[in-house]
Amino acid sequence: MSDTEGWRRCSTCREWIAFQHAYWICNVSTCNRKNTAFVFCSVECWDAHLPTMNHREAWAEEQRSPTQEAYKRQVREGKERRAPTPARRDPPVTETPAPRAPVPTVLRRPAAERAPSAPSTAPTPAPSVSAVADAGPAGRLELSDDTPEEILIVASRLKEYVRVRSGMNTSDRVLAPLSDIIRSVVDQAIQTAHADERKTVLDRDVPKKT
Q1: 186 lies in a domain?
Q2: Could you give the CA distance from residue 78 to residue 194 in angstroms, rounded to a whole number?
Q3: What pLDDT shows up at residue 109?
Q4: What is the full DSSP assignment across 5-46?
Q5: How confident is the model over 59-117, as pLDDT tens digits?
Q6: 209 CB-near residues (< 8 Å, 6+ apart)
């Protein structure tokens, strides 16, 4: 995509963000100054910049790029400019990165699981929530309690869903209890994978609604 066809390059993957297209910014003000002005083509690219920024709390906010005509007019009026994309820097090997505070993130399957697996002779049905709950304690995996109480919900995506679904607004206070529900479901999926003697949690391990 040429300069005249693209609006800005993603600050992480350097791909062009088209005109009149969705993109994401970080809600932290330091990422939106004139000398930074980070923009991201996806939530995954926004998530990739977090380890180098050490935000105390952050989430991705969805925006929409202007039309090409509006952008040219803004450039002429001095209201818009292309921000340089910062070079990627590897952390110094002699330093220990500071621990990052809990931030909203995106639940993604590992890359190894995205490729289609070999067809099996018969599909394995996903267990129900009640079936997993009724499993006895024998052979259960001992789960670690040393896990951070992170927010596992992308606030902007949740609020947009509620708005489109019902026209309602969403309080940030719902993020914590929803994250607790996700943790409970994921714990059940872990136990199902362990019972099958696997080291990878698959989609079929996630309990179905009953």
Answers
A1: yes
A2: 59
A3: 45
A4: TEEEE-TTT-PEEETT-EEEEESSGGGGSTTT---BSSHHHH
A5: 999 999 999 888 888 888 875 444 444 445 555 555 555 555 554 544 444 444 444 54
A6: 129
- Per-residue confidence (pLDDT) for residue 125, from 0 to 100: 57
Asked whether residue 11 is domain-assigned, the answer is: yes
Flag whether 98 is in a domain: no
Cα of 122 vs its chain's centroid, Å = 33
> Tokens standing for 119?
């067809």
Q: How far is CA 187 from CA 15, 152, 180, 201, in A?
A: 36, 14, 11, 10
Same domain, 124 and 201: yes
Among 23, 53, 76, which residue terminates a domain?
76
Domain residues for the domain of 16 are: 6-76
Domain final residue, candidates 76, 93, 128 = 76
Whether the predicted model's global pTM rises above the 0.85 cut:
no
pLDDT at residue number 135: 45
How far is it, in rounded angstroms, from Cα 153 to Cα 170? 12
Measure the CA–CA gap between 83 and 180, rounded to whole angstroms: 39
Q: Which residues contact 66 (CB under 8 A, 6 or more apart)?
A: 7, 19, 20, 74, 80
Residue 98: predicted pLDDT = 56
The low-confidence residues of the chain, meaning pLDDT below 70, are 1-5, 79-138, 210
Task: Quote the mean pLDDT of the chain.
Answer: 76
> What's the angle, vertex CA 52, arms to CA 50 and CA 53, rounded to 5?
65
